[in-house]
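ok so for the tutorial part 2 we go from a plain amino acid sequence to predicted structure tokens. step 1 is just haveing the sequence, like this:
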Amino acid sequence: MSETTSTNEENKLPLNGRRAIPPNYSNDEENEVPEMEAFGILPRGFNPRDYLRVVDIYMFKEPHEINKQEHHTDKYYNSNLIVRRGQAFQIQIDFNRPYKPETDQIWLEFLIGRYPQQNKGTYIPILVGNVIKPGQWGAKIIHRENNSIRLSIMSSTTCIIGKFRLYVAVLTPYGILRTRRNSATDIYILFNPWCQLDAVYLDDEKEREEYVLNDVGVVFHGNVEDVKSRSWSYGQFEENILDACLFLMDKAELELSGRGNPIKICRVASAVINSRDDNGVIAGSWTNSYDYGVAPSAWTGSVDILLEYYSSKQPVRYGQCWVFAGVFNTFLRCLGIPARLITNYSSAHDNNANLRLDFFLDEEGKVDTKLTKDSVWNYHCWNEAWMTRPDLPVGFGGWQVVDGTPQETSDGMYRCGPASVQAIKHGHVCFQFDAPFVYAEVNGDIFYTRMEKNGTQVVENVDTTRIGQLIVTKEVGGDGMVDITEEYKFREGSDEERLALETAVMYGVKKQSIQDTTYQPQTDVDMDFQAQKAVLGNDFKVTINFRNKSRNSYTATTYLSGNIVFYTGVTKSEFKKHSFTAKLEPSSSSSFDFVIKSSEYMSDLLEQASFHFFVTARINETGKILAVQKAVMLEIPTLRIKTKGELVAGKETSVIVEFTNPLKQTLENVTLRLEGPGVLRTIKKQFGKIPMNSTLTWEVKFFPMRPGLRKLIASLNSNALRHVYGELKVQIQKP
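step 2 — the prediction. this is what the tokens look like for a chain of 735 residues:
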């Protein structure tokens, strides 16, 4: 590079008066490293070939070789060396003659980004010595033979996560000789949950296998009374996914020097996973119309989304909470941060974070949708990431809530977390980041408030148990569900729960107590609501039960409202209205049945096939109001997956996906997707129509990639029917 071009280059740098070098945001950009760095004017007869010279560097980077085996990185589809920090790895250097430790002086240089600096950890020179200390950069010779040496290299436990360039430097009397730039010797360094000194250390091997190495997970959805599950392919080891995840940190403009810190990485990632305010990975849509994109329910995993974003650099359309959480989980596991996907049933989206969700009723006791701003999501998915929290007092490390779904802004951006689960449980919501918001998601109370004509508000009913009723995740080593509600909150009504609430209020969570409001509920009449198991496209029965425990006769003016809702609890349309007067005899129970016809709901049905029933009853003799609400999920038909013959890695085989249309209408614009990490890349196929009661059969030929127990996941999507899934566990034999 001549003198003039380098000065032009310098002039173009975006310098400002505050910093001597520009911000170092990009793992991709490089600086030029001279192969011969002269100490002065070179003597005429200088020939670099007279000195010790590196002929070749061998990285032991094949999946079956020592480095990837010992570092648990053998599953990555990536030809470069991938190691975990704070753990030794080996390389071999071949010279043009035997290495003489007495006179030859060599060292290694690890560089990352365009402006490497030693004090920022982006330029790391390592002298070859005789000892290596745990958790610190160092290198020692463990074997010498002919012209080769084998080195054991230790990286620091706080080292930056990313892709480093490696050079070997040799000292000569006239200058430094370096190896030529060679991308084949680039090294990826990841977090190390197996290393006790790493901030993400997890001490249980079964948990590490699940939360770091498992590339398929389960998303729990539906609602509390009707938990449904579906598989999700994380695919963190698939080709180009690691590079795509590193690109996300570049996109979020996280300084390279901050990339050794899991707290910072989680915080910026929770913003960049969604496209609000930073053109991030996924554009959310809760409208039920998904033009120019893929319906959230059609995705079967994270790989397609991340690869599309990595190549187009534009938000991928569309996602809802489980899609954001699925992609976030892939990102975390890929970088080596233990992570799991969480579902909170009856999740409060409390617009003003006062732990109180207000449902306003009109004169007749119907919910007033214009006034009611808060909503209860049937379920909401977020992630937990495992790490120490040196920025908080002792005891708040471990699982941290991070959420990539854009709900509310935090420090001016749509992001959430990391918030310590332990801090949320004990009400210590003063500890960063966003603990009050998460506390409200799992702890709010629902207030049914009637607006009088003169503008006063009368609280008619308070439900303290519905929000955050059930918090679950996938079990370790299986597909079952584990109830982790107790990790977020004490038992409802216990002394500890009261204390945690008082603590949260002390730390600034706004809470209007029930005592502040004139609220005398009707205690001698109970009302509840039941729905029969409902299958999509069929009629089903709902029942309202009253129990009059008093010695009085009452009449109750009752209003039943059936709504088609998004899973976020937001109403799309009311499809059933019914008012009646119930006579309640003393000390007795009475039931009222109603049939919900498929013709009433099919035309407006949304993709999650979710209904929300509100029942309000006014006891005419006392003027008091009883209120109950319930979400009902329809049973959606599933896809059937079958394999033909035995499955052997590398040998062609075929799989058949079948679906029978159960609706009383023809399905149009049908798209099928099929994928399985380690088995086959996502395949999509479009079908024009499936007439009612007819069966579609799709045969896919493929070559299974690697042996082991794997999972195939399929989805069907059409305008009239979404959220149709199927899955199959397959054992792929070794060839």
